[in-house]
Amino acid sequence: MKHESPFEILAAEPETINPAILLADTLMRRKAAHVLTVEEIIDAEKVLEAGTDEIRTVERHKAVFVKTAPASGSRIPVGF
Amino acid sequence: MSECTLSASFVETLFFRKSFGDRLLRSLEYVGFKARSHNAVNACELLNRVLSEQKKYALFRELFQEEWNGSKTSLYRAGRYTQYSERACELFELVHEHCFPLLDYWNDDPEAEFERFAIMPLNFDLCCEDIDLESMRVSYVAGLIFYFQEADIWDFLFQKYGLSQDEFAPVANRAHPGVWKARQGRKTKPLSMLFRLIDHSTGNPWLDLTYCENAEMFEWDKKTIEELTRDHHDAGNYFKNLEQLDERMDADPKGFVSELISFWNNGRIDGLQEAQN
Fold first, then answer.
1. Which chain A residues are within 8 Å of B38, Cβ to Cβ?
2. Less CB within 10 Å around the terminal CB: N or C of chain B?
């Protein structure tokens, strides 16, 4: 198995904005009286699910980082 | 900007663009959103909230198209139920008015949450409710002798009809399987309906749910609303059946209770051919 450093893992993350942020912005800009169609609601639910998944992934990464054993200041952690 | 342009803008705002209040509320909401728009968690929360409302609006249009077209309630301003817009609250009220009772009892709280909703059971809760026999249908009380050993029930039947437990055959501990058969004869069907009602096994949530169970929660979708509407209407048949059984009880109390016991014990009414099929 290829051993990736934390830097490599971070650098390999897709450079996209969480889709929930983009959709939230779109929805907030819609006309006041615009009501979503059933299809738009279904699509939005898919985006919400993808956005939530992305948050969970980030949280998993964070949990792994937090669990990393502490090291002395003079020692450079693997990957940096 | 010229006076003429200002004037046109003013007229447009006043007469052509509706609901200034809504646009103002929406603008305030947008400002709040912009202040935290970089946060994906907040964005997901906002999406959840928007979708929850939009799903209710979609249902509103599906169920009450005419009312939706004529509605002037706000899509943004909080309504009677403060967690929801006036338009969403209008949907709740329409469902309450045209489909089934929704906004009574525990749903009367202005801060109530309706992401999913509970219904108010129509049947007696024999587990936790204080039972007042005087307020019940007499045929329902007669049916209770098969479920409870309390002397109160026989006392009630004695005082009202002079019936004594000693006059009747012993009641089996469990109902004959024939009692629960879906297909019943003309005579046995009303009795089977009575036992199903008391047993809370009608298959109708308005009659089978009780207060003491963890309340079953229902979703805001067309199928659920239509099913609950139909079930609420059908529940009336069980109460109409009780009225007819009450008449039989009043006319011949001993004969009626004997039939009940016979049907419970044997899955048929003694001397009646149709019930044996």
1. 21
2. N
Task: Report the first-to-last Cα separation within chain B, whole angstroms.
Answer: 90
Residue in B with minimal Cα distance to A59: B41
Query: What ipTM was assigned to the predicted interfaces of this complex?
Result: 0.72
Residues 6+ apart with CB under 8 A from B195: B143, B146, B175, B179, B180, B264
Q: What angle do CA B118, B123, B128 make, to 5 degrees?
A: 85
Q: Do A37 and B33 touch (CB under 8 A)?
A: no
In whole angstroms, how far apart are CA B154 and each of B125, B165, B256, B264? 20, 7, 15, 17
Residue-wise pLDDT tens digits, B64-103: 999 999 999 998 899 999 999 999 999 999 999 999 999 9
Express each pLDDT in A31-68 by its tens digit. 767 788 888 999 999 999 999 998 888 788 777 777 77
Cβ contacts (< 8 Å) between A20 and chain B: which residues? 40, 43-44, 47
